[in-house]
Amino acid sequence: MINMRYYTLPCLFFFLLLMMAGCRKDNLTPPRETAPTRSLGEFIRNNYDLSLLSAAMQKAGILDSLNQPGPFTCFAPDNKAFNDIGITSPRDFDTIDAESLRRWVKYHVLKDRKYISEFPLQMGNKYTTLAGADLYVSSSDAPYMDKTPTESRSVFVNGSMIFPAPKRNLALANGVIHVIRKPLNYTPGTVQDYLQADTSLSIFVAAMKRFALWDGLKEKGPFTVYVPGNEAFRKNGFTADSISRMDPEKFQQIIFAIYPLMLKSKHIFSTDWGQINGQSGAVNTMISVPGFVILPFYSYNFYNNTEDVRIDIMMEKGGYNANGPQRLNYRNGFANGADRVVSNGILHILDDLMLYPHTLRK
Known about the structure:
By secondary structure, this protein is of the alpha+beta class. The chain is built from twelve helices and 16 strands. The chain folds into two domains: 23-184, FAS1 domain, CATH 2.30.180.10; 191-360, FAS1 domain, CATH 2.30.180. A hairpin with a 2-residue loop joins strand 11 (287-289) and strand 12 (292-301).
């Protein structure tokens, strides 16, 4: 008679393995040969690293639609990307109204399948999202590497880095996913509309109005606008009332015209200069305004997953800023402060003034 005891443990072990396999969630990088069997929505739903994106899409009512034939391209912020803007739980999406959340989520998806190799090797390639608004993809050779292999190029979408392999080109049955460094930030309306709606930027609005720059911010553009928040003005002794009492005739125009870059047509993301120049470049490649140059610096260290992000202000003739701080940061961090896209431009929210007005009296 066969002793069943010898079969019991192996059978139980095999049964547990089957149970574990049935409950296992997907990794971020499924094998290429199995990936096409999964749809994009199903993959996001069953991925630990994309659980917050899944929750946002589910709440917005579009996750199941990403199981349809498509094809789609999804620029997918992972959980860390959401954590960096203060979203740590699916409950945090309850504070966002349904229409805004739906628009925000749809802004991360294209109705097309775009692998990295299909983005032209140039800056600011424009694509229309499911939200009906445009986003901008910039593709370049990796820093200090001419003729970078196509799949290894440096690619950013609205200033948000697309991670290198294996987090890009995740092939699925009805599309492709590229994991990005931070969520994309889009608000319908003009620069002027955005500023009016955000009460934490009201002193900047007062400055734009007092110095005859306000009306230009509703024009076609595109404009790139650096915006000090109210706390930046206050720590330098300014209020909306004190701004309203300033006499523009007694100051050089640049003191506030520097922020919308003299209202010249510009469309500059926080990562553009680094993508074009690597970590160094001549002064004439920076953003030039009368008397000064602006360097929005960005680099990412893949060895320890850290960023170096800042904005340097220098004199046009060389040397550091003699009329204000030499270095500024984005308010509440890079993920929150930089690259806020609107219909006629981009806003970057700062934690300090670029120039001290009292140093630029006539």
